[in-house]
Design the sequence.
């Protein structure tokens, strides 16, 4: 029998989708029965009270959670997000209901043993409710009390070799696609770079350093499986400088509708009858820069005009491959619409070398120049993207020492004015008036 | 690094004095607010000193989840308030 009546929440279970309400009810019941005989360290009815307070919020049309607080583990300025209920008299089980962010591994690879350990820990010292994974990428452990935080942190770090993630005005847990571990499109080893950045910037990850949050996300190629271009203040997207590799025989196998060469590696097979493969309709005609043609059984790509959108490679993966001179592009300033509107990342560095042998020097140099500028100039709660809007992309180029180049230009200028700075002009503003007057009368 | 920031004892005192003076009107501050105390120093150097003071117990963090603020340990409300003191 449920502790609180929840008629409005029950409505949410009636749709065709899996429901978090059903999950929470199941977890409430599991804790009530406690067949495994767990010595719960937080109230046994935490899930019942969570459902109860949510029902009340629906009824009142306003939240019953307080925003923020002083919680954390010793020495860390992030990783724990304090949440307190403002009606503990009715819902004592969720009087304190803190979230812990746990630094997910690169590519989100786990052993089943690790996952069991994590769930056991969370049943014992928390609500048992998890979010695998949160929007930042972290493992999210939802709901525990203040005295449990240090205990959980001790077990994570000592028994599981596992760190907390970032929250608050910290660097957030870097997140990546699985990259070279599974994907032939990957232009660099995303896991290695995430691992490096996580270690290199431990201080920024655990101790608040910034005007606001800062996120790194890494995509191995422009397919963007972690959508870094939209979800991170600094986005790393794999790319290549040389030519797409073409196997002309394989191209013709696709054109001949050879069953061993299904378009899109067969990904859309069976959803409906797509008819025979048509290279014009499905590949060359859809190239966003119109830089391809297929003539006399030969595919031609004008690589100088290819934007590396990945479309042709995705459709004919057995015939086309990413180039060999690989690196990544860095984009900056994406954010959700908290203050100004939502923004996608802007291209800052079109091609950067990815070199583990020099500790990714080219990458860390850009990161640290951007941080120095933002830490100095950013207003409280101003994201990098907003600072770029406020002070201008040109200012960003100056602080990073990157020369303007065609790839920075979205469309030709509509403003005919160009303002030069004195140091950009040979001879500066000084001129010899005497010399001038020799040729120009007053 | 300025002499003031380099001298842990003096830097700590400057921060505590500044916060104590402000305490009547405000108890939680952004990292940027501390830059004023050390006008000649780089934000990163200042951040290191302020964070050290949290470790040694003079200061404590307050976090909303998305933003972090700093205050004297125990000063002001521990959870969020809605404008009432
Ligand atoms: C390839 C040749 C040219 C190109 C691409 C070009 C382009 C332009 C553009 C883009 C503008 C700004 C339009 C606006 O937004 O108001 C402009 C303005 C102007 N152009 Fe040209 N132009 C060319 C040749 C010329 C020539 C040969 C003359 C005169 C002999 C000329 C005289 C002007 C004048 C007087 C303005 C207005 C300037 C102002 O009001 O600030 N242009 N031109
Ligand atoms: C390097 C040479 C030149 C540069 C950089 C230049 C630049 C400009 C600029 C920036 C303006 C806009 C001024 C404003 O309204 O604020 C302008 C206006 C104009 N310029 Fe030039 N100009 C040049 C040479 C010439 C020459 C040689 C002529 C004609 C013989 C000329 C004729 C005009 C005219 C007619 C206007 C429009 C004035 C108005 O409607 O207010 N320009 N020019
Ligand atoms: S972003 Fe590219 S490299 Fe990464 S998993 Fe997706 S397709 Fe593969
Ligand atoms: S990757 Fe995209 S832009 Fe480049 S040739 Fe293929 S379809 Fe065209």
Sequence:
């Amino acid at each position: 029998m449920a502790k609180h009546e929840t008629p409005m929440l029950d409505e949410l279970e009636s749709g065709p989708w899996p429901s978090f309400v059903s999950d929470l009810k199941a977890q409430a019941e599991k804790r009530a029965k406690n067949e495994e005989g767990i010595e719960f360290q937080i109230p046994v009815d935490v899930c019942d009270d969570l459902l109860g307070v949510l029902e009340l919020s629906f009824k009142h049309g306003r939240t019953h959670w307080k925003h923020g607080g002083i919680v954390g583990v010793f020495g860390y300025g992030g990783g724990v997000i304090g949440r307190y209920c403002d009606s503990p008299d009715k819902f004592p089980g969720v009087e304190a209901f803190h979230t812990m962010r746990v630094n997910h591994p690169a590519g989100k690879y786990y052993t089943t043993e690790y996952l069991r350990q994590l769930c056991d820990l969370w049943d014992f010292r928390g609500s048992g409710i998890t979010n695998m994974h949160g929007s930042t990428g972290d493992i999210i452990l939802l709901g525990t009390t203040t005295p449990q935080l240090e205990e959980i942190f001790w077990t994570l770090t000592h028994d599981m070799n596992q760190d907390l993630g970032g929250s608050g005005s910290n660097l957030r847990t870097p997140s990546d696609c699985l990259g070279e571990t599974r994907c032939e499109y990957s232009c660099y080893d995303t896991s290695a770079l995430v691992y490096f950045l996580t270690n290199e910037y431990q201080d920024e990850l655990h101790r608040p350093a910034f005007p606001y949050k800062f996120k790194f996300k890494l995509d191995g190629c422009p397919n963007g499986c972690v959508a870094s271009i939209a979800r991170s203040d600094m986005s790393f997207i794999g790319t290549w400088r040389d030519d797409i590799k073409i196997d002309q025989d394989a191209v013709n196998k696709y054109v001949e509708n050879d069953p061993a060469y299904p378009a899109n590696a067969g990904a859309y097979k069976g959803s409906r009858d797509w008819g025979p493969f048509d290279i014009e309709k499905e590949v060359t005609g859809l190239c966003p820069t119109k830089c391809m043609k297929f003539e006399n059984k030969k595919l031609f790509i004008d690589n100088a005009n290819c934007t590396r959108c990945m479309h042709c490679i995705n459709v004919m993966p057995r015939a086309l491959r990413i180039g060999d001179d690989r690196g990544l592009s860095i984009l900056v300033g994406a954010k959700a619409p908290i203050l100004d509107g939502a923004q996608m990342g802007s291209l800052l560095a079109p091609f950067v070398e990815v070199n583990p042998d020099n500790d990714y020097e080219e990458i860390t140099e850009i990161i640290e120049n951007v941080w120095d500028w933002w830490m100095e100039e950013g207003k409280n709660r101003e994201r990098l993207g907003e600072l770029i809007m406020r002070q201008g992309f040109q200012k960003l180029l100056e602080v990073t020492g990157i020369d303007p180049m065609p790839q920075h230009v979205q469309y030709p200028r509509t403003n005919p004015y160009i303002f030069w700075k004195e140091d950009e002009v040979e001879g500066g503003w000084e001129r010899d008036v005497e010399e001038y007057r020799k040729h120009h009368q007053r | 690094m300025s002499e003031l920031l380099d001298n842990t004892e003096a830097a700590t005192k400057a921060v505590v004095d500044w916060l104590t003076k402000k305490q009547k009107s405000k108890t939680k501050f952004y990292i940027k607010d501390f830059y004023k105390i050390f006008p000649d120093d780089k934000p990163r150097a200042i951040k290191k000193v302020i964070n050290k003071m949290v470790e040694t117990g003079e200061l404590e963090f307050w976090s909303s989840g998305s933003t972090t603020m700093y205050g004297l340990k125990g000063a002001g409300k521990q959870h969020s308030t809605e404008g009432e003191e």
Notes: Residues A 177-179, 183, 185-186, 219-221, 223-225 surround iron/sulfur cluster (ligand 3) (CB under 6 Å).
